[in-house]
Amino acid sequence: MNIQEYISTGILEAYVLGELTEAERAQVEKNISMSPELKAELSKVEETLEAFAMKSAIKPRAEVKAAIMDKIPGASKIVSRQENAETKVVELSTQFNYWKYAAAASIAFALLTSYLAFNYHQRWVDTQANLNNLITQNQQMAQNYNTVNHKLDKIQNDLSIIESIAFTKVVLKGTSNEPEALAAIYWNTATEEVFLSVQELKGISKENQFQLWAIIDGQPVDAGVFDGNFAGLLKMKNIKGAVAFAVTVEPRGGKESPTLETMRLMGPVAKS
After folding, report:
1. Domain identity same for 111 and 180
2. How far apart are CA 101 and CA 7, in angstroms?
3. In a 3-state reduction of DSSP, which class is residue 69?
4. Are strands 182-187 and 168-174 parallel, antiparallel or unpaired?
């Protein structure tokens, strides 16, 4: 049980004023017996209401009292004898009623303000949640926008390489290990840049990678490793003086020399 929420309901004030049912009073008394904090709060409520009632007590006018006594048969004979006692009774009754109604009004006001506070708080929570959702959506849209822009930039860059006369296209065809395999190399002999494009190449295990080789002066030179699941052009190592290119399957990370038995692709560089 949340003690502060329980106190804010005004149940303790209603308990002090006797406005609860027997079952409700029993439940309050049970809660008080289990919580020193509630017991202390009850004492504060009793002291506050008592002080409020005593301070606000109003003594009735003498003519009101006289009018009431005139309507009671035989009252005039005992007025003098009961003067002081009746005055105290009227004062006490007036104080009690004023206390009761004032406390009831205070409870009603407290309940109203509590409801309004809860209502506005709930609206604030809902507004904050909606704002957070909008922020999340905007962030996702921005991320998607950046992703699309990045892909468009890459496509444009790839097209500029494919269409550039500065790049020589080397077609790599499948070997007996995979006759349907097909790829292409785009090689700029001036800048030595090499880009790889794969059209058809079967997958391999995660423990292995494809390795590109450049045949230079009759010797295979490592041109980089790659996985088969990429789109567009893939930048490989710079190469100078190649007469052919080939692709083999090697352990992940590549090797210093190719495993010829696993060769998947091979293609010569056209003579200019």
Report:
1. no
2. 20
3. helix
4. antiparallel
- Cα 56 to Cα 186: distance, rounded to the nearest angstrom: 98
Residues of the chain under the 50 pLDDT cut: 56, 75, 78-79, 85-93, 95-96
Question: According to the model, what pLDDT value does residue 78 have?
Answer: 47
pLDDT at 98: 55
pTM exceeds 0.85, yes or no: no
Per the listing, tokens 């995979």 go with: 178
**Token representation of residue 7:** 């106190």
Q: Are residues 102 and 7 in the same domain?
A: yes
- State how beta strands 219-226 and 182-187 pair: unpaired
Structure tokens at 234: 């893939």
Q: How far is CA 235 from the centre of its chain?
A: 39
Q: Which of 206, 243, 205 is nearest to 221 (CA)?
A: 243
User: What pLDDT is attached to residue 209?
Assistant: 97
Range of the domain at 230: 168-268
Q: What pLDDT shows up at residue 176?
A: 96
Instruction: Specify the number of domains making up the chain.
Output: 2
Q: Are 80 and 130 in contact (CB under 8 A)?
A: no
